[in-house]
Amino acid sequence: MTGKTDRKQESSARKGKPAPAYMSFRLFTDQVTQRNLMLLVVSLLIAFIVIPKGGFIPGFYQPGDIAQRNVKAPRDLLVPDETLTEKKQREAADAVLPLYDYDPRAAREITERLRRGFSMLQKQADSGGGERRELETVLGISLSDDEMAVLRHLASNPEQADFFVQVMHQVMLNQIVGNLQLFQTEGERGIVVRNLVTREERVTQGLDQVIGIGDALDRVAEKLDELENLSAANRKILSAQVSKLLRPNLTYNQSEMENRRQTGREAVKPVLMQVKKGEMIVREGERVTEEQVAKLKALRALGSDQMSLRMAAGLFLALLLFLSIAHRYGRRNISKYRPENRDLLFMAVTFVGLFILVKLAIFICSALEGAFPYIESSSYYYAFPFAVGAMLVRIVLNSEVALLFGVAFSMVIGLLFGDNLHIALYALVGSLTGGHWVRHCIQRTSLYQAGWRLSLVNVSMVLATQLIGGRGLDIQMLYKAGFGFAGGFICALLVTGLVPLVETLFKYTTNIKLLELANMNTPVLRELMIQAPGTYHHSIIVGNLAEAAAETIGANPLLARVAAYYHDIGKIRKPLYFVENIGTQENRHNKLSPSMSALILMSHVKEGADMARENKLGQTLIDIIRQHHGTALIKFFYDKAKNQEDPGVQQINERDYRYPGPKPQTREAALIMLADAIEAASRTLTDPTPARIQGMVQKIINNIFIDGQLDECELTLKDLHNIAKSFNRILAGIFHHRIDYPEPVHKEREKETVKKKNGDDSHREPPKESKDNGGNTGKGSTEDLKRLGMS
Where are the beta strands (DSSP E) in 560-663? Predict the structure, then answer.
């Protein structure tokens, strides 16, 4: 078709006419073009997801790890040396000299306070309580009775009071510190003294003018010895007062010191290491140092430039080749790998969506590393839901497609983590495990059972990769194992939430959807039960037969059973044209020609497919409805037509009496065909003994096989043998014999009493219904059908 379109466009171009617009639209909507376009888009998106922030540069090394491959610098780099920069910052902070604040106003303030105090004492003759409180307020200290007495004694002699004030003034003119020993230690390399009055700062190393608070007290005590009229006891009391009055006038400024240290650290520029283009950063087999780890991180931090674009182009080409060849290999060599464009779109969306999810998770892990520095960022990777894609594909499609999807996803995910073979292997094993354990998901708890098994496999893989990497059983291994265990349940949770979304967006019928359709109270099955009760009962039996056979040959039992329930829903439109629904009424086919009867029987296949679409049963069930008769011959009406054939008028064409098909394409569709035919034929057995049932089953299976109806499905002769055994077992249970138990004595007496009242003889058979009576019954049945809305 595409070749013809191309030739038409070339012909139009030769004639100088542009190609019609509808041809371009047809080219764009062609299935092959759509597949190629999807491959291009997926490859392009994955390339631009992988390359930024890392690309192929391994960033998972820690100091002391063994490098797994050589890494060269692709260009000149300036790499920040964090260790040396931190050292320089510490040196800058340590270079800041200690800062002391000197207050020259302290000597004047203490002198003024003392003069005011002595003046108050000289003016007042008595020593009331108010005097003491006022004096304490002026001096700023508390006074005892003895101290008040000493001060009054000094105040009574103005010369002694003036001498004491001068002594205090002379001592306070010195620079007094609280801890002289600490001051002397810091003063060896210099001290900054800031005058609080002039705000001037000077660096001093001379310690002659600086004394401690203890030295100041000693000097005052020496001067007080010169007071002759003051007893030793009073001198001691006065010395205690001096210790209260003296305060250091040179104090260490802690807050300003911290600010100056921080300013010094910030003033230091980062120390950069120069890496030349082509320089070998790390060699395979070498132990990685902190400096090499810093260089690798700098490579990963490279922004999007020309080199990144080249890498993206190369990765795009590699992905395009890999995905296209994998797809072509599957179509040519794997029989069950037959994805339609809808399936490819679903896999493409899942593939890209998972990569975006993993990329976002990597950024989150980088942030968590800062919050929890004791956990390596690589430990969080093992909690990523790598297996979600394969599990979804297995639930929606089949094992073969899930296998290819898992292999492709795992290989490309290794590139995202910097050619990390461990992560690629971890993702591959997890994908295969998850895909395997959801193969027959017949209930939602199966997803969590698969998650449990996936958690155990994840923990085992963490241990394996730890041993492969040459690491011991350390605390990081425990973190990885814990995250791996949680990763299995995270996958189960995500799949549980995503399956209904996939069913809705892509119109798939999964096993979980089949569980909902298996409910016998669905509108379609309730209508079938009311409109065509015989067909409804027939479908139930076919479901039992097909489910048992599917379990025997390893097919999908749930799909077989649910498909059997719905395979004949097309008979709802014309239920009375099918023998199982006629009952005691006249067969309507008696008044129709064989060709018309055949058309009516064939129509239930098309009408059933249409009803399945209207009720959104899914493409899987629609296909089985269309295939459950294949291209089988409607033999009864074909033979009837042959018998009525007039050689001189027309020839009977066998194709007019065959179902339109197609033939069964899957094992489940073939099982429905076999179970449908065998259940219908079993109703014709007059004495259904096991031998007769076995012969009937074998005959029908042989006829269907010889007719070629099973040519396009994957049933083997061994499968047919097991199917026959399964059918025999189920039918033997359906047509089992029961013992004819005699009625109890009191029941027999009640019957005889009723018969005598009605004039009946208990030893005579009831009279058969007359034809007129049968007609009345038929009329009554028709009225009942009208009342139910069935005619």
Answer: none
- Spatial distance between the Cα atoms of 350 and 326, rounded to a whole number of angstroms: 17
For the four alpha carbons of 252, 255, 260 and 262, in that order, the dihedral sign comes to positive
Give the closest residue to 637 by CA, choosing from 604, 603, 579, 595. 595
Q: For 34-78, how does the pLDDT look when each residue is reduced to its tens digit (9 = 90+)?
A: 888 999 999 999 888 887 544 445 556 778 777 766 777 766 777
Q: Which whole number is the average pLDDT over 264-288?
A: 81
User: Exposure string (b/e) for 298-312, b if CB count within 10 Å is 16 or more?
Assistant: bbeebeeeeebeebb
Residue 167, C-beta contacts closer than 8 angstroms, at least 6 positions apart: 220, 223, 224
* Nearest alpha carbon to residue 244 among 306, 168, 311, 320: 168
Q: Residues near 313 by Cβ (< 8 Å), separated by ≥ 6?
A: 47
534 and 581 Cβ atoms separated by less than 8 Å: yes
Q: What is the pLDDT of residues 549-606, one digit of tens each?
A: 999 999 989 999 999 999 999 999 999 999 888 878 888 888 898 999 999 999 999 9
Structure tokens at 229: 């009229």
Per-residue model confidence (pLDDT) at position 700: 95
Q: Beta partners for 71?
A: 282
Helix, coil or strand: residue 287: strand
What's the token pair of residue 179?
């801890």
Arithmetic mean of pLDDT over the chain = 81
Coil, strand or helix at 675: helix
Pair of tokens at residue 196: 């609080």
Q: What's the pTM value of the predicted model, to 2 decimals?
A: 0.59
Contacting residues for 535 by C-beta, under 8 A, at least 6 apart: 528, 568, 571, 575, 578, 580, 581
547/244 Cα distance (integer angstroms):
103
Residue of 139, 165, 213 lying closest to 147 (CA atoms):
139
**Per-residue pLDDT tens for 606-630?**
999 999 999 989 889 999 999 999 9
229 or 543: which carries more pLDDT confidence?
543
- CA pair distance 102, 195, nearest whole angstrom: 5
- Close Cβ partners of 440 (under 8 Å, ≥ 6 residues apart): 446, 511, 556, 557, 558
The rounded distance, in Å, linking the Cα atoms of 328 and 340 is: 13
From first CA to last CA, the distance across the chain in angstroms is: 47
Length of the chain equals: 791
pLDDT in tens, 402-440: 999 999 999 999 888 877 888 999 999 999 999 999 987
